[in-house]
Specification:
The protein is of the alpha+beta class. The longest helix has 15 residues.
């Protein structure tokens, strides 16, 4: 697997490969996905608090973006990452979400001239 990915093995034997070191372009994509849950009301000039469902959907999309591939317990590659995630146990999904949060929690885009 690529050196910038990590392998997590679920309790059911799925091998999940997740991007670990993100490029600037990937950071931008992750931030766009995460921010999709936030709505700004231009009339009132206020942010509308996202619902739990909106936040969960954005978090799930970030996770799906970070996953490079999933190998099934039988050794074949999953064709539909979203379908596999839907079938994981709650505990396994939480492990993956925590890892995604760990990877993305401090992401920001600095100005290009600030990057060394």
């Amino acid at each position: 697997m690529q050196p910038d990915t990590i392998e997590l093995i679920t309790s059911e034997g799925h091998k999940v490969y997740i991007k670990q070191n993100l490029t600037r372009k990937e950071v931008k994509t992750v931030l766009q996905i995460a921010n999709s849950a936030i709505v700004f009301d231009v009339t009132t000039q206020r942010v509308i608090n996202p619902t739990i469902a909106d936040l969960q959907q954005a978090t799930r999309k970030v996770l799906e973006y970070l996953i490079v591939k999933i190998m099934l317990p039988d050794g074949t590659e999953a064709k539909d990452i979203s379908a596999v995630l839907d079938e994981l146990t709650y505990e396994d999904e939480m492990v993956l979400l925590r890892k995604a949060d760990e990877i993305t929690k401090n992401l920001t885009l600095s100005k290009k001239n600030e990057m060394s």
